[in-house]
Write a structure and sequence with these properties.
2 domains, Rossmann fold, UDP_GlcNAc_Epimerase_2_dom, six-stranded parallel sheet, isomerase, 16 helices, globular, alpha/beta, EC 5.1.3.14, UDP-N-acetylglucosamine 2-epimerase (non-hydrolyzing), UDP-N-acetylglucosamine 2-epimerase activity
């Protein structure tokens, strides 16, 4: 059997986190040649993950520019990938999830008639504008892909409902593979604010909030609800790594900046962020990936969105939808901080996203696909 040339394409930090353990698994496989191409849709945040996992890209398109639009990202990525694929001549291109890089990578592979493997396939919210543009990115990638690596049975069902059949593999989520590689019980942060928090005796909340659809009134209501909780419950400490988006920063500072026991800090690299999840009691987030990571560590999650493409965790009981309305976010957060039984019920629920062996399953599936 000839060597399989596997090109992994990604461009953002979340993609890099979930693709890094897969790249390392491909590198160990004698029957495969690993080729890594990054678009650098996000530059600094991507580089942090590459360094953490010791990955040196073979191709770096470095497309990031200040104030770039979705159209500009797509066009620059597509043009750059066209040249890379001509030169590298891969047998299969792996894209991940639902970013603009994912869409561009899938299209570029399709134009060159190269096989496409979609990692984290089958996630759907059912609303093409939420999350935007991710819902359509992953839907279009799914229609172009030749191999579909689904984290859960629900993701598989979504593809079958869309009449996508054949070469669907149930693998678990690669983010669990990544998470288990970086968690350390004795982890020490570079940020002394985080080292000085009393995680044992205080109820600690990790907050992340940055999505486009939450900008404006929804985010204002979310931050106001957090402020209400902290002012009412004295034993609560909030840690909020604030996104670099100026709109998020301005609102966070105006509502939460002067509130005691609310720590507004700079965004964290992946390793300290994963270990912070492990130390905190409760996660409030509008992020997608954290809905997968936190349950693996036994941490309840309240989702600050009106819908989720990750219903498995909701069904399992590890995640609840808090929405974006001020009173609802306040009431649900307060309940988990004060009701031990409600907290334990979520914390002890079974994580639906796998056992940390997703990458091995994906590599075996690719080998079998090309053998046949």
């Amino acid at each position: 059997m000839k060597t399989i040339k596997v090109m992994s394409i990604f461009g953002t930090r979340p993609e890099a986190i979930k693709m890094a353990p897969l790249v390392k698994e491909i590198e160990k496989e004698e029957s495969m040649e690993s080729i890594v191409c990054v678009t650098a849709q996000h530059r600094e945040m991507l580089d942090q993950v590459l360094e953490l996992f010791s990955i040196k890209p073979d191709y770096d398109l470095n497309i990031m520019k200040p104030g770039q639009s979705l159209t500009q990202i797509t066009a620059r990525a597509l043009e750059g990938l066209d040249n890379v694929i001509k030169e590298a001549k891969p047998d299969i291109i792996l894209v991940h999830g639902d970013t603009t890089t994912t869409l561009a990578g899938s299209l570029a592979a399709f134009y060159h008639k190269v096989k496409i493997g979609h990692v984290e396939a089958g996630l759907r919210s059912g609303n093409k504008y939420s999350p935007y543009p991710e819902e359509m990115n992953r839907t279009l990638a799914g229609n172009l892909a030749d191999m579909h690596f689904c984290p859960t049975k629900g993701n598989e069902h979504n593809l079958l409902n869309e009449r996508i059949k054949g070469n669907i593999y149930l693998t678990g989520n690669t983010v669990i593979d990544a998470l288990f590689k970086v968690i350390k019980e004795d982890y020490v942060f570079e940020n002394e604010v985080l080292n000085n928090i009393d995680y044992k005796n205080k109820k600690t909340i990790l907050l992340t909030c940055h999505r486009r659809e939450n900008l404006g009134q929804p985010m204002e209501d979310i931050f106001s609800a957090i402020k209400d909780v902290v002012q009412e419950i004295e034993n609560v400490e909030v840690i909020f790594p604030v996104h670099l988006n100026p709109k998020v920063r301005d609102l966070a500072n105006s509502i939460l900046g002067q509130v005691p026991r609310v720590n507004l800090i700079e965004p964290l690299d992946y390793e300290p962020f994963a270990n912070l999840i492990n130390k905190c009691d409760l996660i409030l987030t509008d992020s997608g990936g954290i809905q997968e990571e936190a349950p693996a560590l036994g941490k309840p999650v309240l989702v600050l969105r009106t819908e989720t493409e990750r219903p498995e965790a909701v069904d399992a009981g590890t995640v609840k939808m808090a929405g974006v309305e001020r009173n609802r976010v306040y009431e649900m957060t307060k309940k988990l901080l004060e009701d031990n039984e409600a907290y334990k019920e979520m914390a002890n629920a079974v994580n639906p996203y796998g056992d940390g062996n997703a990458c091995k399953r994906i590599v075996e599936a690719i080998k079998e696909y090309f053998e046949n």
